[in-house]
Fold this sequence. Notes:
The protein is an alpha/beta fold. It is built from 13 helices and 13 strands.
Amino acid sequence: MAAAAAVNVSIRAIPATRQLRRTAARGSTVSRRASHVVRVVAAASPRRVLIVNTNGGGHANIGFWLAKTLSGQGHTVTICTVGTHDDKKMAKPPFCYFNELTSAGVKTVWANPGELASLAGDARFDVVVDNNGKDLDSVGPVVDFAVKAGATQFLFVSSAGMYVPTATPPHLEGDAVKESAGHAKVEAMLRALPGMSASFFRPQYFTGYGNNKDCEEYFFDRLVRGRPVCVPGSGDQLSVVAHAEDVAAMMAAAVGCDAAAGQAFNAVTNKAVTLNGMVQLCAAAAGVAPSIVNYDPASIEGVDVKKAFPFRPIHFYTYPAKALAVLDWAPKHDLASDLAERFAFYKASGRADAPMTFDSDDKIMAQVGR
């Protein structure tokens, strides 16, 4: 079903959006104070939930798993994927698995954020989830529609990437963020939105069924071909890789949870992994011995390290302290098992036998004498 062209005609939502923008203009900041919290275990009564889901990048899998999770809990779920149903991206995971959602009773539609008002008509929702926007311009129309649709709760998928680098990892929810980041501005403005309970989820790296962004595949590509894996720095830098189902379960736990109002949650798992450790776990999943080349990225010429390696080459480790305390949530997945599952999928896809070149790796190894 292709989305029809539409004009956002929301009346009630316009003042809310203007108020948000005025708040941003005044330099409103995201709260840094870690509050005392109480563990909540009560389950939410059934809600009508709209998930506005991105059509690209790894975040799409969060929306897929969230729709599955909420539907399984008895909520009425609509997932609106940005774009059109005939986009070529829809042939890839997780979109090609949407039959799993429809068979579970989830309604699937396609539209751009500004088209929500006409697409959904007079539909009413209790909860709206934005798993697409990164700034005020992209989130604003979703907020407008949430107000028009009578929603009282708004969940925003933000980003752990906006934390200011720290010498004392892990990042906790009260740590400083880059105020200029689009996600930070959206969080700050949603906090000021009257009549709407808002919560924010800051994911980092993730894996799991439905993943469509190269993460573990980067390592598998090299390991199955007997190539060394080039890792910038010492390889001892801490990072974190969560399963998308665990992230979705965390968000689902916030639905109808009064204690989640106004809170930011690090949407990650509770164990870190080093960069070299990621190579070792992927090698174990593939059943091969790892070969690692650590190098100083500052000494390498002609290679953009940000594009040559899938993780940040620094300590980038967040911890889900708030979710563990507030949402009665805990991850059920472990990375080693997840990678074993992902390697089986990798082999079945035929990617292990596909021809590949590794030009950046070759340049790095030539400059480090390998």
